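INFO  loader      accepted 1 record
INFO  loader      residues=247
INFO  predictor   begin
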Amino acid sequence: MVARVTRQAVLPGSQYDWRHAFARLPKLVLFISAVGLLSLGAVKLNDPNLLPIQNIRAQGTFINLTEQMLLKQVGDIQGGYFNINVRAVQEKIESLAWVDRANVRRVWPDTLMITVTEQNATALWQGKGLVNQRGELFYPDKNTFPSRLPQLNGPADTHQQLLKHYRTMHLMLIEVGLPVQAIEMDARRSLVLGFDNGLRILLGRDSHYLRLERFIRMYKKVLVTEINHIQQIDMRYTNGFTLLRKQ
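INFO  predictor   done
INFO  writer      dumping tokens
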């Protein structure tokens, strides 16, 4: 007779399962301890008295800004090295009209470094604001406006369009010795160019560049010697122009 060997099934809750549970207990304790230490460390890092910011530095190429102006804008720093709100400091700096962009970073162990790019004013807008090289408006104190900027005047939200016109037309006219000083657009979208010598050129609502090219041809042929005695030239005619002499 062949003897049969039977095995007793191990049911949940048996001695075998408890031994495995106890074997895992040290790992569980270590995990809980690690979580506790991390939580304690996070609380400690959020302590504003831990490694407080002692120094603030500002750098950049400044014309209308100074390091003192930037530091005054930052004001009192609240927080330590690990928990200072760098984004909030950046926003405070960029709220200054002459600041184009600002970068704020921590420098170990107690310094805040601010790198600033100043606005580059390329034109005057309606005598009230300035236009930067990207065609964006900003409004610093009028006492800080640079001199000799070209003037743009027109309906609201046309500053970018006028800046494009100015750049192209200025390049066309500077080649014949007539740098554009002002460009205006009225409510009907008619363009007028202004120059340092008081000359005004009327270009109308359309075909601006064709009319300007026609003016340049006429200028080279017959107007170059008389231009300083002319007050206004109207190029809105199909095949010609009219002019008004200075009194």
